[in-house]
Amino acid sequence: MMTERELRLSYSVRSLPPVAGSEKVQRYFNTMSVFNCTFNRTAHVDTMIVPRIQLVSFANPAVSGQFQIVLSLFRDRNFTTMFQSGGNSPTVQVKDYIYFKAAVGISGAVLQASQCWATPSNNPNDTVKYMIIESGCPSTADRAAIDVVSNYQSMEVKAGFKSFVWVNTPTRSIYIHCTVSVCLSSISNCTGPVCGGRKRRDLGFDKDPKIYSVGPVIIETPCDVPGVCDHQCSMDDQYQAVCSCYAGFALGPDGRTCVESLYEPREQSVDSRSNAFILVMIVLMLGAVGLIVFKSRNGKKITVREP
Description:
Elements: E1 6-15, E2 31-40, E3 69-74, E4 91-93, E5 97-104, E6 109-119, E7 130-134, E8 137-138, E9 146-150, E10 156-162, E11 173-184, E12 210-220, E13 232-235, E14 241-244, E15 249-251, E16 258-260, H1 263-297
Parallel strand pairs: 4-12
Antiparallel strand pairs: 1-2, 3-5, 5-10, 6-7, 6-11, 7-8, 9-10, 11-12, 13-14, 15-16
């Protein structure tokens, strides 16, 4: 740019971080430095011009490495008792709480779980789902059964929910999925949403959330306990076991055992006696009628007196 007295020059230096392979994230910020110089168009000098050279250093916040997030299952709200990771899937009784924790081992990182949900299969896109966290807050669909202990606060996301059985679905498996992002508190505002009010989100550094899954947890009902009922078992609306017996048996005083019923055979005996009595009466009536007809044919007058 040139004016009547000055000549102004502007230089822009841009630094673009490399993105290796097929990665969708970068670990450095784009930077641009702008230099402006102004020169007088007319100058009178009587000495040698000594240029002034200065090295300027720029400190950009940066992070290197990988974000390794682990999603684990726990039995208690203190997150001290983990589910055993043996060959068999862990089991819980229906209505017991299932707790899960997502953790990242980077100092200054804040985990943000925008969505967490449960499905009957290991497919996070299963159409059958139970929402646990929505927009960073406990789901209002079943709020009384959801316990979000920590989210948008530290290197860990901690939450839990009261276990259940799926409706019209034969499986008793529960898989848990979470959409998790990483925010660096040193360079971003990692404040979470205001639950119950106006929502606000700032995912900060890592704006490419990933889905993490864990499971399954197998739900047991009271009817799965060996010996809970002699014959048949069902559950009431409070998920309590209700026993019943096959035909010919009655439920014992303990509400569990079945004993042979004595009433049904007696009813059958009474019915058979009644049938026999009716049959005898029919035979006697037929005999009386036959006797009357026989005597009438022999010419004898039979007078029947009314009582």
